[in-house]
Amino acid sequence: MGLEQFEVVAVLAVVIIVAASYFSSRFGLATPIILVIVGLAVSIIPGMPLIAPEPELILAVVLPPLLFSAAVNMPVMDFRRDLRTIGALSVVLVLVSAFGVGTLLWAIFPNLSFAAAVAVGAVVSPPDAVAATAIGKRLGLPPRLLTILEGEGLVNDATALVLLRTAVAATAGAFSFWQAAGDFFYAVVVAIAIGAAVGVVAVRIRSKIDQPVLTTAISFVVPFIAFLPTELANASGVLAVVAAGLVTGASSVRRLSVADRNAERTNWLTVQLLLENGVFLLMGLQLRTLVTDVSSGGLSVWHAVWVGLAVTVLLGLIRVAFVIPVVFTARRRRPDYEVQARRFDEALERVSADERFQQHPRGVRIERWLQRRRADARFYAGNGLGWRGGAVLAWSGMRGVVTLAAAQSLPTDFPYRTQLVLVAFVVALVTLVGQGGTLPLLIRVLGIRGTDEEQARRELALLLVEINEVAAGQVLDNPELRRRGGEPFDPAVLEKVREVQARIADPQRRGGAEDPAKAQYGELMQLILDAQQDALNEARSTGSYDSSTIKTAQKRLDQGSVRATGI
C-alpha cells in the first residue's frame, strides 16, 4: 500500500469511527459492534485490498496506550475492593478456560499437541471489556459491575499473553509444570515492580515540569517506557502498563496541577477513542484475508467456523459455571459485612470519645484505618452482586481484537495455524456481535438499575459541604491567618472568598460582591483550594464516599479552581 493510499484509508477510518461513535446511541448498539459490522461489509467489497496488519502492531503499539488510558481512569479504591473478584475472573478463569478449550482442540485436531492446544486456548480466553462497559455505561449498570468488568479487561490480557508465551515455549521442548508456574510468577512480580516504579517516577517528573503540553507529551510515552523494558526482562509488559496506569491515576490528583490533569484527560480521551474503536474496525476488515489464507492452504473454512462455534459455546459454559460460585460467595458474606460495619461504627465512637487515644502519636493513623475498614464493610454490605448482576457478568464474555492479534502471533510452523486463526476470529465475532448485541436486552429484562440519581446528588452535596467545612476550618476560621508578608487579609476579600466557596458547593447560587484586590484574593483562594483538595484526598483515601461521587466532586473542584483563580 502506497503512502497516498494509506493516507486515504486512515482518513476514511477516522471518519467512520467518529460517525459510528456519534450514531451508536441511536442504533442502540455499542460502537465496537457497529465498527466490526462495517469492517466486515467493507472487506467483501470487490477490489478491496487484503488487510493483514502485523500482530506486533496491536500487541506492542496499540494495546499499551489503550490499557494505560483505562488504568489511569480506574478508581484505585474500587479496584482494591473488588480485587478478589477481578483476580478470579482475570487469572483463574482465564487459566481454566485456556485448558478447557485446549482439551477440546486437542481432541479435534489430531496433529496438535496438548501444549499447542493450550496456547490457542490462551488466545481465545480473555474477554474484551470495551464493548461490555460501553453498553453498561449507556444503560446505567451499577458502578460495581462496571468496575469488575473494567478490572477484568485490564488484567486478563496479561494472564493470557503470559500463558500463551509459556505454552508456545512448551511446544518446543519438555513441559514442566513447576517451571511454567515459576515463569508465570516471575512475569507477574517483575511486571508489577517495573510498572509501579515507572508510574511513580513519571508522575514526579511531570509534577516538576508543570506545563500541560509537556506533561501530556510525557504521559503518551509512559506506557511504552513501562512495556519495553518489562518485555526485555521476559516479564509481562501488558501488566506493567496496567500497574503504571493505576499508580499514575492514584497519585496524579495529589501531584499534578488542574491544568495538567485537564489537558491530559482531553488528549487521552481522543487517543482512546481512535485506538479503541480503530482496532474493532480493523478486526472486521481482516475477514477476507483470513478466509483467503485458509482457502489457499487447502483447508476447510466451514470446519474452522464450526470449531469456532463449539469453542464459543464451551467458553460460555465455563464462564457461567465460574461466575455462579463467585456470586454465591458474595451473597453469603453480605450479612457478615453488615455486622462488621456496626462493629467499626462502635469502635470509632469509642476512639472519638477517648482523649488519651486522640493524643496518642499513632491515634490519627489508627482512626483512619478504622474509617477505611468501616467504609469497605459498608460498601460490601450495600453493593452486593446478586444473581442479576451475576447474569450480566456471565454474559459479558465478548472477545475482541486482542484475541485475533494473539492468534496471528502464533509461530508460522504452528500446526493448523491458518485454521486456528480463523477459529479465533469466529469466537471473537460471534461473542462480540451475539453476546454484545443481546446484552442490552438482557439488562432491560433483568431490570438492573444503576446508582439512584437522587441518592448520588445527596451524597455529592454532603461531600462538597464536608470539604468546604474542612477548608473553612483550616483557613477562613483560622485566627492566625496571614498573608505571605505577615499582614492580615482584607475582610472584604474574606467575604468574597466565602461567597465563591458557597457557589462551588451549590452552583445554582449566583451573585456576590464586587471584586476586591486581586493579589489578596489569589493568595487566599490558593490556600482554600489546597485545603479543599487535602480534604477531598482524605475522603478518597478512607473510601467513605462512592468513587463516582469523588470523581464528580473532583471535577467540580477543578472547575471552581479554574473559575476562582481566573477572577
From TrEMBL:
As for membrane topology, the entry says: Multi-pass membrane protein
Provide the residue span(s) of the region labelled Disordered. Answer: 539-567
Judging by the UniProt lineage, the source's domain of life is Bacteria
Keyword terms:
Cell membrane, Ion transport, Membrane, Sodium, Sodium transport, Transmembrane, Transmembrane helix, Transport
Per its UniProt record, what Pfam families does this chain match?
Answer: Na_H_Exchanger
- Any transmembrane segments, and where? 6-23, 30-51, 57-76, 88-108, 157-178, 184-205, 235-254, 266-285, 305-328, 379-398, 418-443
Provide ranges: composition bias, Polar residues.
539-552
Instruction: Give the chief site where it resides.
Output: membrane
Q: Which residues form the Cation/H+ exchanger transmembrane domain?
A: 16-443
Q: Which Gene3D superfamilies match?
A: 6.10.140.1330
* Subcellular location as annotated: Cell membrane
Q: Does the keyword Transport apply?
A: yes
PANTHER family documented for this protein: SODIUM/HYDROGEN EXCHANGER, SODIUM_HYDROGEN EXCHANGER 7
Q: What is the protein named?
A: Cation:proton antiporter
Q: What is the species listed in this Swiss-Prot or TrEMBL entry?
A: Brachybacterium tyrofermentans
The lineage, from the top, is: Bacteria, Bacillati, Actinomycetota, Actinomycetes, Micrococcales
